[in-house]
Amino acid sequence: MKKKRHKLILELIEKYEIGTQEDLLQMLRERGCDVTQATVSRDVKELRLLKTLGANGVYKYSVEKAVDNSYPGMFDALFQSAMTKVDYAGNICVIKCSPGLAGAACATIDAMNVHEVVGTIAGDDTIFMLCRTPDEARGVAEALNRMIGR
Fold first, then answer.
1. Per-residue pLDDT tens for 15-31?
2. Which of 4, 22, 24, 143 registers the highest number of CB atoms within 10 A of its CB?
3. pTM here?
4. Beta-strand (E) ranges in the chain?
5. Third-level CATH fold of 71-147
């Protein structure tokens, strides 16, 4: 039963932008999987699901990529200390950083495998981030600004 439920969870998060355990719980129940909130919470941990930025600028569950486990913590710490401002024009985000830290911040962004981001280029204190659409660029810029407290 657990293997089937895990498979269903992976299918659901691949197909839908599920942002909360409550939403996931409801979708599982709609598909005949009678589970509790505690079970869903354990499943999220066992499957090592991450919250990543969705196309609508809201965080959603996704499958952890094969990266070092320290990246989520590094991501928060690096961004809060390195990034100073994020803006966008068209489908490009421009991220201003403290001098010398753009390369590290850029490498961290790349390691996060954000679907909306096609690629990044870093200078000394500036990152250019190419997003797939202008709407996704706006969503990424807004989410990053929230992360750094702007």
1. 998 989 999 999 999 99
2. 24
3. 0.52
4. 49-53, 59-63, 83-89, 92-97, 117-122, 126-131
5. Gyrase A; domain 2 (3.30.1360)
